[in-house]
Each structure stands twice: as structure tokens, then as C-alpha cells.
């Protein structure tokens, strides 16, 4: 009986330490962030420095992960490439979360005020945005403004807006039906005040979980766009472009494709595992069962 009471009363930090999925995901995510932070102050070699006489070398004490077809250090490119992935993920998720949550909360508030047609218009607009996935949006933007990192960020951010809008709207509608929200309305609190005081704090958990999942999706999208030449442009290193450069050397230097592929896989895996762990830790019903 005492053990169950201690488990039920354990804080979120204690539950996090006992959650293997969250711990592994947080460790892999920390490695990605640590690699990007390390590259800001140190890399084994300049990532864009060409050294043709030493091209296509295998791992050694001089070049820890070898060199590519132009003699550039692979490890240095991987470290700096993490910067692009994190930057695209943070900004794109920020765009999607900021605009999507605002639209979702607005739709839920208008629905609660009896203006369901506004809710319908906003959700139909979100459905229309789903018709333009990140890759297609990047191609359209590249045709207008040219390829680049900004194009990737905008395209992925636009794709994230309806995702967060739907999640925020669904969770906010449930909150607006609660008794304490009805009491706040009777007390004279307006829609904006209710949204700020009651709705946003109660829908934060699913939004945080979705943010980690969208971050992983953004990393995959950025790698795909860079692979196609629509994302990060030379000479800035990028995991996706490293894969593109390695595809013609699969039989001569297969490790050139292994290293960036492993970086993408581990980063996405870590974010997804951390998202699953956060979902369990932030859900009161699941946390009581653990």
C-alpha cells in the first residue's frame, strides 16, 4: 500500500527517470543538440575545406569518419549539418505551432460563442493547406524565390500549421465544455481571457508532444529537400545533401551514405521516443498507471 502511494505521489522527474522510452529519446536528442552546439566552437577540420589528395579516405586517426569525394572531413560535416536540421526544425515548428494554435483556439472560441460558421471556415482552410505537403510547397516556392534554407523552413512551417490547428481546436473544444469555463463565462470573463487562463494551460500537454513529433518530421523533410537540391545550399553542410553526394559512390565508399543516414535515423528516433515518453508522462491517466 505504501509503495503504491509513493508511486502515485512521485513527481514528474522521478517518473521520467523510470521511463526507458523517454530516457533513450532524451539521450539521442541531447546527442544531436550537443553535436550542433559543439560545431559552433570546434570541428576536427574546417567542414568546407577541400583536400583532393586525401579524398575518399576511410576512418583513421586523422579523419575519424573518413573524407568525401572532395577530401572534406565527414565528421566535421556531420557536426555542422546538425545545425541546419535543428534550425529548420525549431523555426518550422515555431511557425506551425504559433499560427496553428492561434487558429485552433480561435475556432474553438468562436464555436463556443455560437459562431460555428467561423469554426467551419477555419477548419476547411486547414484542410486546404493539407493539399500542399512540404515537398510540393518547397517546389512551388523554389520556382518563385529559388531553393534555399528559407524555402525549406517556410514550406515545412506551412505544412505544420493545420496539424497544430486541428490538435489545438479539438483539445480546446473539450476544455470549453468544462464547468470551470462555464463559471468563468458567467463571471464575465471574455473569450480571450478564458483562452489565456484556462484553455492554453490545459491543452499544453498534447501540443508539446506534437511539437516533438513535428520536429522529427521537419528533420526528415529538410533532409529530403536538401537531397533534392531544394534545401540547404552549398557550401553549408547538410545531412540530406551528404546522402545525395554519396549515392554515386555506394560501391566505392559506402560509409559516406551510412554516416548521414545514421545521423538522420538516430535524431528522428530520439525525438519520436521522447514524444512517446512525454505523452505518457504528461497524461495523468497513464502516469497513474505507471
From TrEMBL:
<feature type="domain" description="ABC transmembrane type-1">
    <location>
        <begin position="82"/>
        <end position="275"/>
    </location>
</feature>
<keyword id="KW-0813">Transport</keyword>
<feature type="transmembrane region" description="Helical">
    <location>
        <begin position="86"/>
        <end position="109"/>
    </location>
</feature>
<dbReference type="InterPro" id="IPR000515">
    <property type="entry name" value="MetI-like"/>
</dbReference>
<keyword id="KW-0812">Transmembrane</keyword>
<feature type="transmembrane region" description="Helical">
    <location>
        <begin position="21"/>
        <end position="42"/>
    </location>
</feature>
<comment type="similarity">
    <text>Belongs to the binding-protein-dependent transport system permease family.</text>
</comment>
<dbReference type="Pfam" id="PF00528">
    <property type="entry name" value="BPD_transp_1"/>
</dbReference>
<protein>
    <submittedName>
        <fullName>ABC transporter permease</fullName>
    </submittedName>
</protein>
<dbReference type="InterPro" id="IPR050366">
    <property type="entry name" value="BP-dependent_transpt_permease"/>
</dbReference>
<dbReference type="GO" id="GO:0005886">
    <property type="term" value="C:plasma membrane"/>
</dbReference>
<dbReference type="GO" id="GO:0055085">
    <property type="term" value="P:transmembrane transport"/>
</dbReference>
<feature type="transmembrane region" description="Helical">
    <location>
        <begin position="249"/>
        <end position="271"/>
    </location>
</feature>
<feature type="transmembrane region" description="Helical">
    <location>
        <begin position="207"/>
        <end position="229"/>
    </location>
</feature>
<dbReference type="InterPro" id="IPR035906">
    <property type="entry name" value="MetI-like_sf"/>
</dbReference>
<keyword id="KW-0472">Membrane</keyword>
<keyword id="KW-1003">Cell membrane</keyword>
<feature type="transmembrane region" description="Helical">
    <location>
        <begin position="121"/>
        <end position="143"/>
    </location>
</feature>
<keyword id="KW-1133">Transmembrane helix</keyword>
<feature type="transmembrane region" description="Helical">
    <location>
        <begin position="149"/>
        <end position="168"/>
    </location>
</feature>
Amino acid at each position: 500500500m505504501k509503495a503504491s502511494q509513493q508511486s502515485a505521489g512521485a513527481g514528474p522527474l522521478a517518473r521520467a527517470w523510470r521511463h526507458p522510452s523517454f530516457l533513450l529519446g532524451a539521450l539521442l536528442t541531447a546527442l544531436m543538440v550537443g553535436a550542433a552546439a559543439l560545431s559552433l566552437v570546434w570541428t576536427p577540420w574546417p567542414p568546407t575545406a577541400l583536400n583532393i589528395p586525401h579524398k575518399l579516405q576511410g576512418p583513421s586517426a586523422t579523419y575519424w569518419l573518413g573524407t568525401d569525394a572532395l577530401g572534406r572531413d565527414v565528421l566535421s560535416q556531420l557536426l555542422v549539418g546538425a545545425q541546419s536540421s535543428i534550425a529548420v526544425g525549431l523555426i518550422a515548428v515555431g511557425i506551425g505551432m504559433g499560427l496553428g494554435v492561434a487558429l485552433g483556439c480561435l475556432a474553438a472560441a468562436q464555436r463556443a460563442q455560437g459562431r460555428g460558421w467561423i469554426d467551419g471556415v477555419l477548419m476547411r482552410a486547414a484542410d486546404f493547406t493539407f493539399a500542399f505537403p512540404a515537398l510540393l510547397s518547397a517546389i512551388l516556392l523554389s520556382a518563385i524565390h529559388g531553393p534555399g534554407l528559407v524555402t525549406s523552413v517556410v514550406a515545412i512551417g506551412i505544412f505544420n500549421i493545420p496539424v497544430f490547428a486541428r490538435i489545438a481546436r479539438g483539445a480546446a473544444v473539450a476544455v470549453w465544455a468544462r464547468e470551470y469555463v462555464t463559471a468563468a463565462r458567467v463571471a464575465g470573463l471574455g473569450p480571450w481571457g478564458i483562452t489565456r487562463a484556462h484553455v492554453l494551460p490545459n491543452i499544453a500537454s498534447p501540443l508539446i508532444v506534437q511539437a516533438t513529433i513535428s520536429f522529427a518530421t521537419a528533420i526528415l523533410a529538410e533532409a529530403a529537400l536538401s537531397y533534392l537540391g531544394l534545401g540547404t545550399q552549398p557550401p553549408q553542410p547538410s545531412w540530406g545533401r551528404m546522402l545525395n553526394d554519396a549515392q554515386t559512390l555506394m560501391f566505392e565508399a559506402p560509409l559516406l551514405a551510412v554516416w548521414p543516414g545514421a545521423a538522420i535515423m538516430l535524431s528522428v528516433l530520439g525525438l519520436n521516443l521522447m514524444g512517446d515518453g512525454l505523452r505518457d508522462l504528461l497524461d495523468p491517466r497513464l502516469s497513474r498507471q505507471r
